[in-house]
Structures are given as structure tokens and as C-alpha cells.
Design goal:
By secondary structure, the chain is mainly alpha-helical. The protein has twelve helices and no strands. Helix 3 packs antiparallel against helix 7, helix 3 packs across helix 8 and helix 4 crosses helix 7. The longest helix has 42 residues. The mean pLDDT is 81. It is found in: Membrane. It holds the Pfam family EamA. Keywords: Membrane, Transmembrane, Transmembrane helix. One of its GO terms (cellular component) is chloroplast.
């Protein structure tokens, strides 16, 4: 009888190292969506004490400075010329100021989980804009996904408007502000190709966060947000940790890891993981804030997530 050779110590170590690398790659792939989802919960808990625009500015300014410093340390070229700075400023206005401002305004009036689902519907708008501006085709299944996505968003938003009463305008709906936030993010996604023509994409990412955070800080002052109106001393250590987590992990680290993964793997696979963001936001929103969905909103959330998959279906199949 032939005996099977026993693995040597070097073989065992090699297997352990391979398993460790695979585990670390999985963690790095999932971590941005975990940070984004849990940052929604952290922001939701601290906004009443600080004000929405203060949180939005604090999420952008330190994180943007960190990204710029990181890019400079890696030898990335600083933007130069009116075209580069003009493109970054426009990018910052739409993708940073409008996106984060609408998000924090809406988060005051809706749950972190529901808001995350609405924001992560932005691939539906991206698909339409990409077809209009870049001639990209999404196919019949993708078109069906767009229709299904509209139905899902209506189920998410209409019940909230009904509960709030007929005297409440659409501008008083948190779901509406989240929808505007999603559209801002979608337009920002389309703008990335244009901005990258004039400057390094990582530098542009950092500077657009800084430039987008400045008007939000000004609005926070004019809006008399509590944090800038003599109430910042009322923040507890847990509030400070939540703000730090939102800025460092919910912005700088998550965007850095996301773009790192985007340069070395499948963009479609990475995009398909956006499903994880509302899942993490819903789980931690339930655990820490006691948030729940109405039955219609659960159905709308499921339809919206299925619609996002359908819109990406052609790309997913093409890569297999």
C-alpha cells in the first residue's frame, strides 16, 4: 500500500499564506460597503446634535485633505490650469456638496437603511446617462430593470409621503432629499471621465471633497447648526467617535479602498456589491437605532435591488 506523502511545514505555511491573502482580499472588497452603510447609521445618530450641514462638511473636508496628502506622498501630480480646477470645482459642487448636503438633509427625516437603498439606486440613473452621453447599451433586460426600478422607488417614497400627510410638500420628505442625493451621485459618476481628462483622478477625488466641503461649512454657519452655535460642548465621546468614523472610514478609507479595488479587479463585480451598503445600513440601523421598514417599503427595496442587478446584467454576463 502506497502512503500519501505528508505535507511539509513549508507547504502548510504556503497554504495558510494563500488562505490569508484570499481572506484579506475578501475583506478589502467588502469593507467600503460596510463603512458606507455603517457611516449612514453613525450620521443618523449624531445629526440632531450637530446639524446636517456640519456633518456633511466634516465628512468631506478632513477626508479630502487625507486623500490629497496620500496622493502627494505617492508622487501624484497636483491639478494645474483653469480647465483642471474648473472641472474639479464643478465635480465638487455636484458629487460632493450636493450629494452630501442632500444626503444629510434627508437623513433627518428617514431611516439610515431606507435612505441607503434610495441612494444606491443611482446605477439606474447612471445607465440612462451613460446611454445618452456615451452611447452605452443596456439591452432589453436592463431596460426592464429601469422600469422596475421606478416602481421600486415609488413604493419606497410614496408611503412616507402618505404618512406625513397631504399638507406636507415633497421638500419636507426625507425620501425626496435622498432621491436628489442619488441623482447628484449619478451625475458625479458620469463626470469622472471628463474630470480625469484634466487631472490625476486620485488628486481630483481629494480636491473635489475639499472644494465641495467648503460651501457646506458656510451653509452650516448660516443655518446656525447646533455644533457651530454654542452646542458643540454637548457632544459626548461617542458622538465624537461617530463623527471621526464618518469622516475617516466613511469617506477617506472607504473611497481609497474602493478605488484601489477598481484598478485591479472587475468593475462590474465591484458595482454589484453595492447591494451590501443598504444591507449593512439596515442591520445596524435596526440594532442601534431601532429602525424598521413599512411592508410597502420592504417590497420597494427588494424591487430596487433586483432592478440594479438587471441594469448590470449585460455587463455581468459579458464578463463570465
Amino acid at each position: 500500500m502506497r502512503l500519501r506523502p505528508q505535507p511539509t511545514n513549508s507547504t502548510a505555511w504556503a497554504r495558510a499564506a494563500t488562505a490569508g491573502r484570499e481572506w484579506w482580499e475578501w475583506v478589502s472588497l467588502v469593507s467600503p460597503f460596510f463603512f458606507w452603510g455603517t457611516a449612514m447609521v453613525a450620521m443618523k445618530g449624531v445629526i440632531p446634535k450637530t446639524g446636517p450641514f456640519f456633518v456633511a462638511a466634516l465628512r468631506l473636508l478632513p477626508a479630502g485633505a487625507l486623500v490629497v496628502a496620500f496622493a502627494a506622498a505617492r508622487g501624484r501630480k497636483q491639478p494645474s490650469g483653469w480647465a483642471a480646477w474648473g472641472a474639479i470645482a464643478a465635480f465638487g459642487l455636484i458629487d460632493a456638496a450636493c450629494f452630501q448636503g442632500f444626503l444629510t438633509e434627508g437623513l433627518q427625516k428617514t431611516s439610515a437603511g431606507l435612505g441607503s437603498v434610495i441612494i444606491d439606486s443611482q446605477p439606474l440613473t447612471v445607465a440612462i446617462l451613460a446611454a445618452l452621453f456615451f452611447g452605452e447599451s443596456i439591452g432589453a433586460i436592463g431596460a426592464g430593470g429601469l422600469v422596475l426600478g421606478v416602481v421600486g422607488l415609488l413604493l419606497l417614497e410614496v408611503p412616507a409621503l402618505s404618512v406625513e400627510g397631504s399638507n406636507t410638500s415633497v421638500w419636507g420628505s426625507g425620501e425626496w432629499w435622498m432621491f436628489l442625493s442619488a441623482q447628484s451621485m449619478a451625475v458625479g459618476t458620469i463626470m469622472v471621465r471628463w474630470v480625469s481628462k484634466y487631472s490625476d483622478p486620485i488628486m481630483a477625488t481629494g480636491w473635489h471633497m475639499v472644494l465641495g466641503g467648503i460651501p457646506l461649512l458656510v451653509i452650516s454657519v448660516l443655518n446656525h447648526d447646533p455644533a457651530l452655535n454654542g452646542h458643540i460642548q454637548e457632544l459626548t465621546w461617542s458622538d465624537i467617535v461617530a463623527l471621526g468614523y464618518t469622516s475617516i472610514f466613511g469617506s477617506a478609507v472607504s473611497y481609497g479602498v474602493y478605488f484601489y479595488n477598481a484598478t485591479r479587479g472587475s468593475l462590474t463585480t465591484l458595482s454589484s456589491l453595492t447591494f451590501l451598503t443598504p444591507m449593512f445600513a439596515s442591520i445596524f440601523g435596526f440594532l442601534y437605532l431601532g429602525e424598521t421598514f413599512a411592508p410597502e417599503q420592504i417590497g420597494g427595496a427588494l424591487l430596487t435591488l433586483v432592478a440594479i442587478y438587471m441594469v448590470n446584467y449585460k455587463s455581468i454576463i459579458g464578463e463570465k
